[in-house]
Amino acid sequence: MHRRLWMAAAALMMVAGTAAGCGGPTEPAPGSAASCTAPELRWTEPTARAGDDVLLEGAHLLTGCDDTGADGTQDGDAAPLTGLTVTLLTDGAPYEPQPEQPQPFTAEPDGTFRAQMFVPDVDPGTELEVEMTADDGAVVRSDVLTVVE
């Protein structure tokens, strides 16, 4: 009986040790890196007042890049996102009325975007974000800009 208990305990320790080794984050192999960086939109300032113009910058707004190569694309095959429309969000909901803007547009050939965005007349503490949607369905949301007094 003791032998069975000992064998069961040893088996449990083996399973626990294996699970602990598999459950942690994995580190990339030295010298490896993703060939495609996720698209991003960032305000150049973390805060602004109502009525200010604030620069919004985008980077890596590209499509057609596949890290695995499974679809046959290579790094140089990435193209700028097209058919981009922009929605201004206040506290996570679409702001009404939306600011006038030339739409749809295409990111620059290198996947960048720069635009001055007008901060609407909203209460201090309101969080502004921009959501950009491409014609292929890709959606990129900016970081938060907080409106101050």
Attribute tags:
three-stranded antiparallel beta sheet; 149 residues; signal; alpha+beta; 1 helix; Bacterial spore germination immunoglobulin-like domain-containing protein; Immunoglobulin-like
Quickly describe the structure.
By secondary structure, the chain is an alpha+beta fold. It is built from 1 helix and 11 strands. The chain is 15% helix and 31% strand.
The gross shape turns out to be elongated
Strand content: 25-35%
Q: Which CATH class of the domain at 47-149 applies here? A: Mainly Beta
Give the tally of β-strands.
11
Span between termini: 75 Å
CATH architecture of the domain at 47-149: Sandwich
Listing every helix as H and every strand as E from the N terminus to the C terminus, the arrangement reads: HEEEEEEEEEEE
Low-confidence stretches: 1-26, 70-74
Describe the structure.
The protein is of the alpha+beta class. It has a domain at 47-149: Immunoglobulin-like (Sandwich). The protein has 1 helix and 11 strands. Strands 2, 6, 7, 9, 10 and 11 form a 6-stranded mixed sheet that branches. Strands 1-3-8 form a 3-stranded antiparallel sheet, with no helix packed on it. β6 and β7 form a beta hairpin.
Reconstruct the topology from this structure:
Layout: H1 2-23, E1 40-43, E2 47-49, E3 53-59, E4 62-63, E5 79-80, E6 85-90, E7 93-94, E8 113-118, E9 127-133, E10 139-141, E11 145-148
